[in-house]
Amino acid sequence: MLHFVPDSPWSIMALVLCFVLVCVFEFANGFHDTANAVASVIYTNSLKPRTAVIWSGLMNLLGVLLGGIAVAYTLVELLPADVMSPPNGAPAIPMLVALFGTALIWNIATWWLGIPNSSSHCVIGALIGIAIEDAFVHARALGPSVEWGQIFKVLKTLAISPAIGFLGAFILYLLMRSVIRKPELYTPPTQGEKPNSIVKALLIATCTLVSFSHGSNDGQKSIGLIMLTIIGIMPASFALNPDAPIHYEQLHQDVQSARPLITIYGNHSFRQEQLAAVDRLSSATEQNATPSLVRGDIYEILSALRSVADNPAIDPSEAKQAKSIANHLRPAVEYAPVWVRVLSALCLGLGTMIGYRRIVQTLGEGIGKKHLTPAQGAVSEVFGAGLIMSAGYTGLAVSTTHIITSGVAGTMVASGSGINPKMLLKIALAWIITLPVTISLAAFLFYVFI
């Protein structure tokens, strides 16, 4: 696929296929992740399923629109710069097909089994697999060729957040039980029974919080992937941010300031390519610049500046300078039009409406030895929403599924009802094998398609 000529019919067809795949992936994301937001409100009969998923979809939309794009590009930056923007200007079709194919296959497989596995986990594993295979293809050592610092930052957050979700929900449930003594909050719902107005209002409120926070974090993840795809389809229109036009005099100053930092502290495996990007950007003007090539060079410099800032030998003032230069460059290439955010939210909402039932049943009946109570659902959602929302605004990529599921487990332990060991083992195995499976599958598909 790398031999497809840019703007040729085959290239455009492949990229349109990628655009469809990313929408389908976000639709499948709704099977898993947004179902966590509506599980309690549906399982306790607080809202009818259709009303719940429509409301959840609207709150997801609002979360995506107000949540920024920091998480979107935190994930995108896991990829090497030459994969996102190949030097010859060709669209990165093999990367996109391998990424979406891997994430879709694993997402649908775990959904079919009713396992609340994380879509974020799938995407991160696929991105790592592509980065590793790209290093092999170019005969580079894995150490300096993969953005390990960025990968470990994302994986650390992904690993710690379930433990925080479990412990936080455990403590919050005990506090709630000691303060609020309404028996109906701590009794599993019976078939067809509707909760009283207070319980109903509480669960609708927590559903709203989780849906909004999900949009502010998980909804961003597809935004970066959609942007990669539409930039490949129409680079002249989308490679650079039309709302933040490049001031080339400032660009020349920034990249020249970056040169000595890259020369001294940069990754030696990529130093020549990165300094070549500095030279090209130093001579770029509005008249002679090709948007896709300028974008590729800016990503090369951003990758270099991350390596510079992470170098343990660097002086703190120079590390601060590297981050400042990167902050000047990012707005030109890291952005998302409103219609991309709306598209992401719509795909999430539609996926929830179609596939929520399997995950709702797992959360309501499968995790604990007893069925989910309103208090357990509310506590896991309140704490989870706060954790997810704070991560969304700081650029940390966390998993809604991991946090809400572990929160439900925490409330089950706190209430003394215990955890279903078979379901817990099933979920744990899915979480453990997701990374190796998606890394291997994405690397294989990337190798095949190039």
UniProtKB/TrEMBL annotation:
Known catalytic reactions: phosphate(in) + H(+)(in) = phosphate(out) + H(+)(out)
InterPro entries linked to this entry: Phos_transporter
Main location: membrane
GO-annotated biological processes: phosphate ion transmembrane transport
An example Gene Ontology CC term for this record: plasma membrane
Subcellular location: Cell membrane; Membrane
Protein name per the record: Phosphate transporter
Organism from which the protein derives: Neokomagataea tanensis
GO molecular-function term, one example from the UniProt record: phosphate transmembrane transporter activity
Segments passing through the bilayer: 12-31, 52-73, 93-115, 154-176, 222-240, 427-449
Keywords: Cell membrane, Membrane, Phosphate transport, Symport, Transmembrane, Transmembrane helix, Transport
Family indicated by similarity: Belongs to the inorganic phosphate transporter (PiT) (TC 2.A.20) family. Pit subfamily.
Signal sequence, start to end: none
Database matches in Pfam families: PHO4
Domain of life where this protein originates: Bacteria
